[in-house]
């Protein structure tokens, strides 16, 4: 059905992309499509290629083979050398890295979150207001004068998220955005993702968290050895136990049933409050 989507509605088209880090292959013939306003989850075992794919979508590295386009425009090194395209792309697409240390380089949390708006030459009072709002939203106003590299892992992650959300980009690439966060902060990230169900943003999230999958994504891709092993709705993927086991997204395990019998159980556990 998605074949009928007009090009103007295809945010990312990834065709047969391969990528390697020196001799380490990371992506091998991967194809995917993300349309405007979709929330897509990337699933897969450690090393399956999720972060590499997000880096390519962010235009931070480029395929060795195959091609990627963003709303019909080829996302190539050459194209990003064009200043106008570079700033337009960077303005529209924000990325939160798996490791916040890569992202944080300013002397204070305030400066970190203000960096993007200042680069875009927003007026000073607008920068102060918007940064203040974003620090409040992320619950990190009390950290505003602290050095980002001296914060805890979860605090760093929230600063990294704030430094992207402050610009309100229309496309978000989120690499395990709630990993290392406490349950309250995790729930807040999930709330953001749920609120974007209204198609106001295009969001691609790499995650290992199957419990929130149906809340945060309309569609998911399961990656295996740098290629797509499966694509479908969260519900369809969650029901494919053989796929989940093969791609190490769940593990067979033993647990004790009410009757007191211990059984090996090759099924997915989901925890609901009801
Ligand atoms: N900087 C690097 N140098 C060399 N190899 C790398 C580098 N980054 C990733 N790789 C390799 O590329 C492959 C894909 O890694 P990637 O980080 O994309 O996986 P991932 O799905 O994000 O894993 P995780 O769930 O652990 O975050 C792996 O084999 C990994 O070892
Ligand atoms: Mg990763």
Characterise the protein shown here:
- The chain is of the alpha/beta class and 274 residues long.
- It has one domain (2-265): Rossmann fold (3-Layer(aba) Sandwich), CATH 3.40.50.300.
- 32% of the residues lie in helices and 26% in strands.
- A hairpin with a 5-residue loop joins strand 11 and strand 12 (262-265).
- Helix 4 (109-119) packs across helix 5 and helix 5 crosses helix 6.
- The longest helix is centred in the middle third of the chain and has 14 residues, at 124-137.
- Mean pLDDT is 91; it is low at 263-267.
Features:
binds adenosine-5'-triphosphate; 10 helices; Rossmann fold; binds magnesium ion; alpha/beta; globular; four-stranded antiparallel beta sheet
Secondary-structure map:
Blueprint: E1 10-21, E2 24-35, E3 39-44, H1 50-57, E4 65-70, E5 73-74, H2 77-80, H3 83-92, E6 93-96, H4 109-119, H5 124-137, H6 153-165, E7 171-175, H7 183-195, E8 202-206, H8 213-216, E9 219-224, E10 227-232, H9 234-239, H10 241-246, E11 253-256, E12 262-265
Parallel strand pairs: 3-8, 3-9, 6-7, 7-8
Antiparallel strand pairs: 1-2, 1-4, 4-5, 9-10, 11-12
Helix pairs in contact: 4-5, 4-6, 5-6
Magnesium ion is lined by residues 50-51, 98, 175, 206.
Short description:
The protein contains 10 helices and 12 strands. It is of the alpha/beta class. The strands form 3 sheets. The protein has a 6-stranded mixed sheet, sandwiched between helices. The chain has a 4-stranded antiparallel sheet with strand order 2-1-4-5, with helices on one face.
């Amino acid at each position: 059905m998605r074949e009928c989507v007009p090009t103007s509605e295809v945010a990312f088209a990834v065709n047969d992309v391969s990528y390697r880090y020196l001799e380490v292959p990371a992506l091998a013939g991967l194809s995917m499509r993300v349309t405007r306003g979709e929330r897509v989850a990337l699933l897969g075992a450690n090393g399956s290629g999720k972060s590499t794919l997000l880096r390519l979508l962010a235009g931070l590295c480029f395929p060795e083979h195959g091609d990627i386009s963003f709303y019909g425009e080829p996302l190539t090194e050459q194209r990003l050398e064009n200043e106008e395209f570079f700033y337009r792309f960077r303005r529209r697409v924000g990325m939160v890295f798996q490791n916040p240390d890569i992202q944080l380089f300013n002397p204070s949390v305030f400066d970190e979150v203000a960096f993007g708006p200042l680069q875009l030459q927003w007026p000073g009072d607008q920068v102060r207001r918007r940064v203040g709002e974003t620090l409040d939203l992320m619950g990190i106003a009390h950290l505003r004068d602290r050095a980002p590299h001296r914060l805890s892992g979860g605090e760093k992650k929230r600063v990294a998220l704030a430094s992207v959300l402050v610009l309100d980009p229309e496309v978000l690439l989120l690499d395990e955005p709630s990993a290392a966060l406490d349950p309250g902060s995790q729930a807040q990230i999930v709330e953001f993702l749920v609120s974007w169900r209204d198609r106001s943003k295009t969001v691609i999230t790499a995650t290992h968290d199957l419990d929130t999958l149906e809340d945060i994504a309309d569609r998911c891709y399961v990656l295996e050895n740098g290629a797509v092993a499966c694509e479908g709705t969260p519900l369809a993927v969650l029901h494919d136990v053989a796929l989940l086991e093969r791609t190490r997204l769940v593990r067979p395990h033993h647990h004790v049933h009410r009757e007191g019998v211990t059984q090996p159980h090759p099924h997915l556990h989901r925890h609901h409050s009801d």
